[in-house]
Amino acid sequence: MSVLAFEIAATIRHDGQGGVTDGLATAELTEAWIQANAPLVEEVAGGRSLGSSLSVDDGVRLQLVGVRRAVRSLFARAVSPAPPSKADATRLLAPATALAMLNEAADRLGSAHLEWPDEGEPRTRWSAESADPLDLLLGAVGRSGIDFLAGPDRHRLRACPAARCVKYFLQDDPRQTWCSPTCGNRERVNRHYRRKAGTPNDL
Ligand SMILES: [Zn+2]
Predict the structure, then answer these.
(1) pTM, entire model
(2) How far is CA 102 from CA 97, 105, 106, 139, 178, in A?
(3) Domain-located, residue 162
(4) For residue 179, how far is its CA from the centre of ligand 1 (angstroms)?
(5) 157 CA distance to ligand 1 centroid (A)?
(6) Number of domains into which the chain is organized
(7) Is 33 inside a domain boundary?
(8) Residue numbers of the domain that contains 139
(9) Cα of 149 from ligand 1 centre, angstroms
């Protein structure tokens, strides 16, 4: 359930050239992200499908960007006192603001009701039966963020400390420092270079 929150946080990533790229920078990119993640939205939303009726304009995009900012601000709080991802460290929301935004998004799904058909398994159904796909989308992202941050995996959340990385990742092992072997290797090379050259290096 918490995968969706990670997917939206990961739309801010390193561009490989020292900068940061945003997977929700335009309405077209946002629409592609929504399509790619529709199965995850559906999973969180209790099987309700987004369908194809959501037209993504800049208003929709900005609302999704707002929930992402809340998720990333709370990710930053979760990794504290370690430093947060460098991508948005200077524009994090105050915790109370981020919490209010995340909760408001999740409210679009309503509260959890139990549905248990005569023939079949019990399952969660969300009480808000809105026909608006935007409610499903924002509600699912908000709900996913809550599930993650209130769950046991929060303690494994880390911001990769590699110079050219802005990723949040889940630590699999207490000795894992970097998000990936690629970041670990690059940092080892950088340190070796710095020791030899004795000069600062921001590679
Ligand atoms: Zn990394």
Answers:
(1) 0.89
(2) 9, 5, 6, 9, 28
(3) no
(4) 4
(5) 13
(6) 1
(7) yes
(8) 3-156
(9) 21
